[in-house]
């Protein structure tokens, strides 16, 4: 986001590298008087979050709610996420297909939950963030590294994305979403996974899968399919 122009007071806050409660009050009063009203405002908010890793307790909720309210409720078409909004979110939040910042990932999830409808390419993209995390080994209490399986927190993440696909007690997912789930399964097949994961995969198994075409997307490339896997994790 090197092209962002920081006017006062954002330039002063960005220079400090942190946002305290007073800074947030100043931003709300002068920089975002009426909230986030356009894409320039949204990019400025994202840039401030990137440049100020230290922030007050009120910042996360403000950041997520303001950005979500803009992309879902203010930017046309209001109330839903279309292909253009999905493309903007992917460009704005991800670097080489990875959403690294936790608040940006929460914004992506919250926007999908809030919207009346969402393109399956965006939910598939969000599912793939879980795959990136699972590809990275974690340190155990014994100092060794291990690859964890699907946990209860992961299942909560998955259902936040797929809850809107439930109708009449049945889960209806697209072939794109099924492909993302299948690629997660490729990673965790021999790991210790939450029991609910198999239930999700049973639904996904009935969907037509287009893995080869799906992996043509840069944000779904992994080692072995022509792309260079980047180990950075959301």
Structure, briefly:
The chain has 11 helices and 6 strands. By secondary structure, the protein is mostly helical. It starts with 9 loop residues before the first helix and ends in a 20-residue tail after the last helix.
Task: Describe what this molecule looks like in 3D.
It is a single chain. This protein has 234 residues and is mainly α. The chain has a two-stranded parallel ribbon. A two-stranded antiparallel ribbon has the order 3-4. It is globular and about 55 Å long. A hairpin with a 5-residue loop joins strand 3 and strand 4 (145-146). Helix content is 54%, strand content 5%.
Structural class: mainly alpha
Task: Specify the overall morphology.
Answer: globular
Query: Order of strands in the sheet with the most strands?
Result: 1-2
The chain-level mean pLDDT equals: 85
Q: Distance between the terminal alpha carbons, to the nearest Å?
A: 18 Å
Q: In sequence order, what are the helices and strands, one letter per element?
A: HEHHEHHHHEEHEEHHH
The radius of gyration is 19 Å
